[in-house]
Write a structure and sequence with these properties.
Elements (H helix, E strand, L loop, with lengths): L4 E6 L3 E5 L6 H13 L7 E3 L10 H11 L2 E2 L3 H7 L14 H15 L3 H8 L4 E6 L2 E5 L17 H11 L3 E3 L7 E5 L2 E5 L14 E7 L6 E6 L3 H10 L4 H9 L10 H4 L17
C-alpha cells in the first residue's frame, strides 16, 4: 500500500457509499440486500475503509465482502493488518478508553483472519479516484495526507479545502470519524456517508450510508437502516469483546466522546436528520 490514488475511470448510475463495516457481519448482510433492492451493482458500491473493526466476525465479514465484489479503500485498520502491526492505528490518545478498548478488539480481529484474508487486505488501494457526473471524485479514509485524521462537520473548512487542493477533486468521499455529514465548500462537496458497523451516537441502533445519483435532485441522499443488532451484540459479548462497544450496538450511544469536537459531542443522543436543502444545490 502507498498514498497514491488508484484511478478507476468513469462511474455511472447510482453509487452506494458506506464505511466502517467493523467486522459487523449482520450489518453488511443488510447493506448488501439494500444495494440489490436499489439495483446498484457491487462495483458501484464503495467502502471508505475499516472493513475490520470492533465486532465479532472479522473473517466472515471479509469473506462476504470479497464475495460481494464491492470496491474499497484501506482504512487505518487494514493498513495496520497489512503491515502486521500490533495496534489499530486509529490515532487514539494513549491510555484513553478508546485506546484501551482497541487492545482487546484489534488482537481479536488479527487472530481470527485467515491468510487469504490478509492477502486480500494487502491488495486494497489506499485511495480511489473516478469521474462521476463530470466531476472528479476522490475517496479517502481520514484525509489524503493522514489516513487517521478525524475530520468532522465542525472541522474548519480550511482543513477540508486542503484535501480538495491536494487531490484536485470536486467531491471528497471520506470515512474514519464514524458520523455521517456533508458540507458544501464553494463549488466542492465533502461527503462522509457514515459507518454501518456502529451507530452514530444519536441514541438509535440504526447505521448510515449514502447514495449518489446523477439523475436525481438532490444528487446526494443520506440513509439509515436497522439490522440484527441484537445478534451482533450477543456475539461480541460471547467472544469477550469490549462490553461498552457491545452496549453501543444496542443503545446507539458511544461509551465516550474522546475523539469528538465539542460541537459533535453536544449532539450525543439526538437523532440525526438530513434536510434535502443541504444538498439540493450541488
Amino acid at each position: 500500500m502507498d498514498s497514491e490514488i488508484e484511478n478507476i475511470g468513469t462511474l455511472n448510475g447510482k453509487l452506494l457509499l458506506f464505511g466502517g463495516v467493523y467486522s459487523n457481519l449482520q450489518a453488511l448482510e443488510k447493506l448488501i440486500s439494500i444495494a440489490k433492492s436499489e439495483g446498484i451493482p457491487s462495483d458501484n458500491c464503495i467502502c471508505t475503509g475499516d472493513i475490520i473493526g470492533y465486532c465479532a466476525q472479522p473473517q466472515q465479514t471479509i469473506q462476504l465482502f470479497k464475495d460481494w465484489g464491492a470496491r474499497a479503500i484501506a482504512g487505518n485498520v487494514e493498513v495496520q493488518l497489512a503491515e502486521d502491526k500490533d495496534d489499530c492505528g486509529c490515532d487514539f490518545r494513549e491510555g484513553s478508553r478508546c485506546d484501551n478498548f482497541s487492545q482487546l478488539w484489534y488482537p481479536f480481529a488479527k487472530a481470527h483472519l485467515e491468510k487469504d484474508s490478509i492477502e486480500f487486505v494487502r491488495a486494497i488501494p489506499r485511495n480511489l479516484s473516478f469521474t462521476y457526473a463530470d466531476k472528479k471524485v476522490t475517496v479517502v479514509h481520514g484525509s489524503y495526507s493522514n489516513i487517521s485524521e478525524f475530520i468532522f462537520k465542525s472541522t474548519p473548512k480550511q482543513v477540508k479545502s486542503n484535501v480538495f487542493e491536494e487531490t484536485n477533486s470536486d467531491i471528497i468521499i471520506a470515512g474514519h470519524c464514524g458520523l455521517p455529514f456533508n458540507e458544501k465548500i464553494g463549488d466542492k462537496l465533502w461527503i462522509n456517508p457514515g459507518v454501518i458497523g456502529m451507530p452514530a451516537n444519536d441514541g438509535t441502533p440504526r447505521v448510515w450510508y449514502a447514495i449518489l445519483d446523477e439523475n436525481a435532485s438532490p444528487m446526494l441522499s443520506h440513509h439509515s437502516f436497522n439490522y440484527e443488532h441484537e445478534l451482533a451484540n450477543e456475539l461480541m459479548l460471547k467472544n469477550g469483546l469490549p462490553q461498552e462497544y457491545a452496549n453501543t450496538i444496542l443503545t446507539g450511544i458511544w461509551d465516550n466522546t474522546e475523539i469528538l469536537p465539542k460541537a459533535e459531542s453536544e449532539l450525543q443522543g439526538i437523532e440525526i436528520e438530513f434536510q434535502k436543502t443541504l444538498t439540493s444545490q450541488f
